[in-house]
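FIELD: query
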Amino acid sequence: MLAAALVFTSCDEFKLFIDNPVSSYLEVNPESVTLKVGEEKALEVTTISDQPVSYKSSNKDVATVDEKGVITAVSEGDAIITVSVASTATYAAGMKQVQVKVVPAIDPILTTPLTIEAKAEGGATVKLKKISTSLELKTIKYKKSTDTSWKDYKFNDVNGDEISLNKGESVSFWSNNAALALGSDWMPLYSYFDISDECYVYGNVMSMIDDQEGATAENPKFSTDEEIGASYAFYNLFQSCKKILNHESKELVLPATKLTSNCYAGMFSYCEKLTEAPELKAETLANYCYQSMFNGCTSLTKAPELKAEKLEDFCYQRMFSYCRSLTKAPELKAETLTLGCYSGMFSGCDMLTEAPDLKAKELTRSCYASMFNGCTSLTEAPEIAAETVAPYCCQSMFAWCTSLTKAPVLKAKKLEAACYNVMFQFCRKLGSLTCLATDISADYCVAGWLGSAGTQVEGDKILYVDPSMTEANWQFPTSVVWKAVSANN
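FIELD: result
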């Protein structure tokens, strides 16, 4: 009930004072909002008050609001927008608060489907092929830069539609397949691009596996997807595409943070004109996930950062093998190894001069096998922190490193089968080595490990050994004179 009092003035006038003012009925929609940096949102405000509505942000560095109630997201963080009306003789004051959360903006490249753009003067043709008709794929769509809508991509036997591009024209691809290959222990079935001449490749590869519920080419959902859900997802997708190039301003994006087995295996193998690898964001790996990913990328000069600290079996096997322009290896952060994890990783990288630190204290089967085999420019080997070995762990590790002059100290006391087999074979400039093993009875543990090593070093070649070991204990090549000397001397 409204309570009022009449108050007379000396001029016989009166004023009406309201003891219980009417509610201003202030309503604000929405009550909370999440915006990406750069986005705007207009608040819907309803009130019966005759006073103007005012707006105030608790943190203008995160979100601002203007006199019309339009919120602008400035930077990542949280802010509160206070919406208020002042009191009057008739209406009570009103106040509401809107919770605002600002998240990073989606990089436009994440919303760009996987795109191939013709660079060659005469244009290029692009098509997908299947290794076998037994590989069944769901919907694939494509859209040329000259098209107004997406079109179905079709296969005739193992060959997909051939798309012709003039110079500067591009074609984008979208698919709702969970993977573009079918895994098999014997012979994976996969699809791959066939590109006739020089083309740029850029955009988000996740557009090729946009299998989220409700996703379509016209209404895709891949831009926020960071998880590969199926094995062999991109297996060999660009294998032997010898004329694909990095675009100078548009990135090729592999945004997945969670991988599956073989998901990127062979993806860019023998892409001879790629100079820079795409960023790899994953910190959680899977078996064989990067196996041979950049194998044979002979122009690759920059390797991606490898963020994972936990490895899986064969995860980096032959990842950069025969990347003949690569001079510096990426840091290897893991301290716990797995089966074959680094085997052949940099084999054939004959321009490599900087090797990564090898931090692991315990080795596993084949973990470093052939890791630097054929790195003919490497002069100094990284130290091996481990004091124990495993079967085949360092087999062929530095074989054919013909410029190697400094080898790591081999600290393990008890050797395992083939652990150092042909480890330094053909290291022709290696003149000394320290091996502190006292039990070398395991099969082939030092077989051929110094074969043709030291042939370009004048004078005696020295193997520094544990004092309990004599020269008779060791297998030396007959073609080169190596002598065992106590490491205490």
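FIELD: remark
The CA atoms of residues 236 and 267 lie 4 Å apart.
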